[in-house]
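User: Please write out a complete single-protein record containing the residue sequence and its fold in token form, without commentary.

AI:
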Amino acid sequence: MQAGRFAKFRQMRAVLAVATAAIVVGVLAAADRGEQMCALTISLVDADTGGPIAGVIRVAGSDGENVPLKGLLARGIRTRKKKLVVISDWSVLAKPATVDVPRQELTVEAFSGIETEISRVAVNLTGTDSKTLSIPVRRFYHAADRSFRSGNTHLHLQRIDREKSDRYLAEVPRADGVDIVFVSYLERAIEDRTYITNDYTADDLARLEEQTGVGFANGEEHRNNFIGRQGYGHVMLLNLKKLILPVSIGPGIMKTGTDGIPLQRGIDTARGDGATVIWCHNDLGLEDIPNLVTGRMDAQNIFDGPFRSSYKHTFYRYLNAGFHVPFSTGTDWFIYDFSRVYVESGKYVTPQEWLQGLAAGKTYITNGPLLEFHVDGNSLGSTVNLAQAGQVKVAGRAVGRVDFEKIEVIRNGEVIRTAEARPEGKHFTAAIEFDLDVATPCWLALRTPPQSIPGDEELTKPTPLNELENQLFAHTSAIYVNVAGRGVFDEHVARGMLEEMLESRAIIAEHKNFADGIERGRVLDVYNLAIKAMQRHIAERSPR
């Protein structure tokens, strides 16, 4: 990508070291309070192989209170009201490190990513000047052995300087066990002076990959907001050859210009260059359905950032209307959660190959539980073709460090079978297998119970929390079952999507922020063409 564009604000950015020092290198340690200290050297090793691994740790004193670990990176940074805050007491241990801790009885906890159990070690440092502690961490699952690799499709950093940003990107994905991270560019008037990840060039990302073994690739969040109301939406353009300009459209974000360019223009340019297109933030924006209907979306993100919505608002609706939409996710500002999308793509894979698997629907999303799901032995994203009504064998399994309570098999958006989670050592498992009678086309998926959503009366019970105090979620992409050559199609749902596009077109037509009728018409054409495409889609699939 263009180095000059990525470095646009380099000369303008003030160093933010003082403002973020407590977040990035720890907070007040016991030594600063005058206590006698022990130099404790801690390392993490794989319990099976004995090899070194990266992970996170926390230390509790004899009173049970957390012991701050000065010099280690705080795990769980996120933005709240334009400020950076630490949301957990875990610290990143990317390699062996020495920390000053009180000379007393301590409890040290550690884990690596979401595929290991939590190890707990008691150590008595009374009267001890220094000690070395090696903590074995036991893996209960290995997604890579099943050819699944994980990725974060939506990430930016802000309000920290370059040194701290480099350290964050080098340490956190490794500690989390994330295989691929897309570091994306975005613009917002004035505020983007602190968007440090805008500075990263392709060469910078390649150096990070060589340093860490984590795959890094570029992206752009292409977006539009109207002033004071929802605009066209936000879309991730991943693995770009060059930035799509303008990066952000209209005065709602840039405080200048008009809303005269649809997101679709940028999407088409990116696709022409071989980029992958992922809609952001579930159903945020007016242009999501037009781009879905016309085949421009490779996948759909959910839970990427503070925007909360439910599966039924996009995925279930889209699938029931006859569109194949892979599930994806990321974290937006900082890696504040363990959120990632697993893609069946091989034990080692390039970002481009990984994105191909994502677009093929070979995915599941999670911030904790690991999922396995097959229909007649077919894996995620597959289509099972039945010549006539019959039976299919459904098999699902979940494994997780935190009790996720149960798994649910979903058919066309409805729960049809469940299985309770059971403890197994220091983790939990659930499994289900049954024969399913199939009389009509359907799609099938596996999930853990969905997160509670404010204002959604069907989703009011919070799910259990992971170690970063975020509600657990996990959901596979669909496996499709066709019967006699026909796939899933719910005309009522499709017509509801058509009606939504008509309403969006009416909003656009009344919108005042266009320079002239040509600009308005250019945006309306996105909806006009998509409405016609949806009408054809309904006519072709409706019973005659």
In short: The chain has eleven helices and 31 strands. The chain has a mean pLDDT of 91. The chain has four domains: 1-18+142-363, 35-137, 368-488, 491-541. Residues 35-137 form a domain with the Immunoglobulin-like fold (CATH 2.60.40.2190).
